[in-house]
Amino acid sequence: MADPKGFLNHGREVAKSRPVEERVKDWNEVYVPGSLLPIISKQASRCMDCGIPFCHNGCPLGNLIPEWNDYAYREDWGAASERLHATNNFPEFTGRLCPAPCESACVLGINQPPVTIKNVEVSIIDKAWETGDVAPQIPERLSGKTVAVIGSGPAGLAAAQQLTRAGHTVAVYERADRIGGLLRYGIPEFKMEKRHINRRIEQMRAEGTRFRTGIEIGRDLKATDLKKRYDAVVLAVGATTARDLPVPGRELKGIYQAMEYLPLANKVQEGDFVAPPISAEGKHVVVIGGGDTGADCVGTAHRQGAASVTQLEIMPRPNDERHPINQPWPTFPMLYKVTSAHEEGGERVYSVSTTHFEGDEDGNVQWLHLTEVEFIDGRLTPKPGTERKIPAQLVTLAMGFTGTDRENGLVEQFGLELDERGNIARDADFQTNVPGVFVAGDAGRGQSLIVWAIAEGRSAARGVDRHLTGASELPAPIRPTDRALMV
Asked: Sorted alphabetically, which keywords does the UniProt record give (predicted)?
């Protein structure tokens, strides 16, 4: 145990953010560089080394949180990094992007602010990179087996790294021009600078993983041809079919899916554009959807110089604190969150539904008409007399995703079966109905968190390894049927 009285002597202290007026002028991460290390030992000491550490259950990776908290408290960064990497291939991703269900399940959180697990995690991995404790793990021998991984998001990268380290020859196919999937083009730079992805890719290259960009399986290369080339295939193609808003005026110019808008801002940071083809500069921006992707659109619009930003959510405003009956510990509660993007300004409107859009004579969106809604007999129903319109010269739809891409032909060419939710069906080993074809991440689970994607990739890798060799020593932290601790 780090410090038997740590949770009594120290309160929760989180990473410091740069001033709003400073950070909205650039695209760097919002946190003050180096601000965590001076406080992280005390924060790690708050871990109580519980008899039953429920943080393990909250985290699908089964991260050894009390162990690396103890090492961080003692400032034994090498040992902390080893324990962190024992269950997580990419802690610098989760430490920045995961909403931390582990903290919601922290035993200390029953009656006090929980341990700052995310901050400890990111401190350990950043220190490990700084000291050279992150090195390629090159397999001692090769199996002679080949694996194709389709998709280079967190699930695909995790599966690829595990299989490469097991001795298989792995090639990752990505339809975009750079590796990273939504980590690269869906997550804004101010949440995670892309240098973190780049150095992991270089580590994976050194280990032997090969990368093929600009190739979309199903269009550029038939799925059947790919299957003939490799002994196994892992589908980590995500759930990229965005939910649309079929209301009058949807065809007007200036209305985009979030994943049409966000990648262009990232491409500016990559040097592909001087200015984004779609920009919020000087415009009244409306973001439809109250989740993390919506918040990413809000923060991006701020940095592009929007005249105003309004975020709409059809559901009621969440509670500020956990409800002891409806959302009991250790479940992951749906609480009111103020992200860094929300700190930077804009208005958030709850319990409203868009009725239609209104444009000008040139077909550009100018107004969004909405109405307030309420639950009546368990259904969201418009409230009479609450209709109004708000200015909207740029609208982004961030309402989630409904399943994997069906338009590129991949599902049909492989002959894959889908489950009742439209996800690619798989068995206990993450194998689809097609022998030798496996699925990991959102394509099989549905839209989920980054920590679940990495867990899926690791677990699917075990299934592939068993298929290729008859046995496997790779870890499998989850089963395909496992779900988050939620009510």
From this structure: Amino-acid biosynthesis, Glutamate biosynthesis, Oxidoreductase
Give residue 303's identity as a one-letter amino acid code.
R
Look at residues 215, 203, 234, 62 and name the one whose alpha carbon lies nearest to residue 135.
203
Query: How far, in Å, CA of 440 to CA of 480, rounded?
Result: 9
Q: Locate tokens 């009111």: which residue?
A: 336
Interior/surface letters 295-324, b for 16+ CB within 10 angstroms, e for the rest? bbbbbbbbbbebebbbbbbbeeebeeebee
**pTM, 2 dp:** 0.97
Work out the end-to-end distance of the chain between its first and last CA atoms, rounded to an integer number of angstroms: 31
Helix/strand/coil percentages in the chain, nearest 5: 35, 20, 50
pLDDT digits (tens, 9 = 90+) for 453-484: 999 999 999 999 999 999 999 999 999 999 98
Q: Which residues of 462-481 are buried (b: 16+ CB within 10 A; e: fewer)?
A: bbbbbbbeeebebebbbebe
Residues 332-371: tens digit of each pLDDT: 999 999 999 999 999 999 999 999 999 999 999 999 999 9
Helix (H) or strand (E) holding 8: helix 6-9
Q: Is 173 helix (H, G, I), strand (E, B) or coil?
A: strand
User: What is each CA distance from 217 to 31, 228, 407, 475, in whole angstroms?
Assistant: 38, 13, 11, 28
User: How big is the CA angle at 410 (ends 409 and 413), to the nearest 5 degrees?
Assistant: 80
> For residue 193, with 0-12 CB atoms within 10 Å meaning exposed, 13-18 middle and 19 or more buried, which class applies?
middle
In 10 A of CB 376, how many CB atoms? 10
In single-letter form, the type of residue at position 141 comes to: R
Other beta carbons within 10 Å of 369: 17
Query: Which tokens go with 127?
Result: 């220190």
Strand, helix or coil at 277? coil
Sheet of strand 347-350: strand arrangement: 255-257, 394-397, 284-288, 308-313, 347-350
Say whether 407 sits in a helix, a strand or coil.
coil
**What are the φ and ψ backbone dihedral angles of 3, each rounded to 5 degrees?**
-145, 115
